[in-house]
Amino acid sequence: MHINLILETEQRSASLIPLQAVIRIVLGGLGLLIGLALVSFYTSYRALERDTELTLEEWKHTEPKYKAALDLRTDLAVRNDLMKEISGWRDTRLSWAEQLAALRGAVPSLIQVSEISVSHDLFVMSSNTPARVYELRLSGRVGAAHSETSVSEFTDALHRPPFTVWLESAAIPPGRFRQDPQVKTDRIFEIVCKYKPRRFE
Amino acid sequence: MKLPANKKERAKILVLIGMGVIVLIIVLVQLVAIPILDSRRKLREDIEEYRTRVEKARRELRASKQIQAEFDAVSGKLKAIAEDYLLHPILGSYLVGVSEALDPQARESGFTIEDLQERGIQALRLRAKEASGRAYNAYSVQIVGQGSYDEIAAFLKSLEGRNPYVCVTELKISEQPDTPERHRVTLRIEWPIEAEPARTDAAKGGK
Fold first, then answer.
1. Per-residue pLDDT, B129
2. Last residue of a domain, one of A67, A91, A115
3. Are B86 and B194 in contact (CB under 8 A)?
4. Cα-based torsion angle of the residue sequence B9, B12, B18, B19 in order, rounded to the nearest 10 degrees
């Protein structure tokens, strides 16, 4: 028969550090850590708030200057567009004084040019770039003798510098080299010169 | 407060206390921790955004000196072009200005201007997408006159040399059987003119 003379509440642990003390120490340590974490969090939060205020203040101070700088950049872009537009206009021009001077040197002595006609058109190229295109029609007459040689010489001259810089093609359209209806001993001809497109770039 | 000695009763109370603690923790997390953490995240995002903006602004401000120099240079060039080469109306008429410009040049070169007529103002057909922002138009005139080949060439040289923006778009030189040394000439010339007052001011370089 076993008789327990000590109540459960009166029992004491034989261990050197009682369990209750361990629990209290752990709970106390945990509470301290939580407290420290809360203080640290609060401090860093306040620091973050101050940093935000300072950065906002700096931005408010910088923003007007920044907007002025952006406006300046926009204005510069507008002016650059204007410059590009007017430069494009100038660069697409063809100097007709220069063309007339070059033509004078290209016409064989037996040929008499009766008409020089220049027309012009503007169109948008495949790259969506507008361009000027000129066409030059040269009408003339030449004596029947050596007429083919002279006209051929003239056409060949239009395929040599300086014309190669400007011209895309120079040819006599079919039926445009024929007998002069008024002076039967002469031949009349027409040469059509197409200029290279001059792009507005 | 002492826990009951009965194990079952004690366990019930401990379970209730545990549930209470869990509920308390959930309430604290929902009502305190999450809003505070959200607020901190928002602050961090704000600070990051403002720092990015300030940095961007500083870069722009560092570049603005160079931009100002470019702006002044381009404005100066546009102003010079507008003053020296663009056609400006005199008493509401562009033709008067054209006549004033052409007559002395024709006299100097020996070219005879017999007729000068306005052919109107056309839009420069530049890129379609830029058409609405066009700053210049083309004013064109037709000239009918007479001259020798040399005189015609000298007149064109003078015209094109004095203004690099004047553009001869049509030219017809025909022989005259009665006066073989002088030819009949028809010319179409285009000048750029300012198109829109708002952008015209810009072209003059004012800001």
1. 44
2. A91
3. yes
4. -150
Q: Which of A91, A118, A136 finishes a domain?
A: A91
Contacts with B, A 90-149, CB within 8 Å: 90, 92-97, 100-101, 104, 114-120, 122, 124, 128-130, 132
Report the C-alpha gap between A17 and A151 in whole angstroms.
126
Summarised one tens digit per residue, pLDDT across range A1-11 is 677 777 777 77
Q: Which amino acid would we find at residue A185?
A: T
The total number of structural domains in chain A stands at 2
Domain membership of residue A110 as a residue range:
96-199
Q: Is the peptide bond before A18 cis (omega within 30 degrees of 0)?
A: no
Helices B149-162 & B94-109 angle (0-180, nearest 10) = 130
pLDDT, tens digit, 9 for 90 and up, residues A87-96: 988 999 999 9
Both A87 and A133 in a single domain? Answer: no
**Stated length of chain B:** 207
* Cross-chain residue pair A101–B153, CB shorter than 8 Å: yes
DSSP string, chain B: -PPPSSHHHHHHHHHHHHHHHHHHHHHHIIIIIHHHHHHHHHHHHHHHHHHHHHHHHHHHHHHHHHHHHHHHHHHHHHHHHHHHTS---BTTBHHHHHHHHHHHHHHHHTPEEEEEEEEEEEE----GGGGGG--EEEEEEEEEEEE-HHHHHHHHHHHHHH-TT-EEEEEEEE--TTSTTSEEEEEEEEEEEE--HHHHHHHTT--
| N-terminal to C-terminal alpha carbon distance within chain A | 117
- Flag whether residue A85 sits within 8 Å of chain B, measured between CB atoms: yes
Whether the pTM exceeds 0.80: the reply is no
Can you give the pLDDT at residue A196?
94
When CB atoms are compared, the residue of B50, B81, B188 closest to A56 is B50
Domain harbouring A128, CATH code:
3.30.980.50
How far apart are alpha carbons B127 and B118 in whole angstroms?
A: 26
Report the distance separating Cα B83 and Cα B125, nearest Å.
23
From the list B43, B67, B134, the residue facing A76 with the nearest CB is B67
Domain co-membership, A85 together with A125:
no
What are the angstrom distances between the C-alpha of A21 and each of A13, A54, A85, B1, B119?
Answer: 11, 49, 90, 18, 109
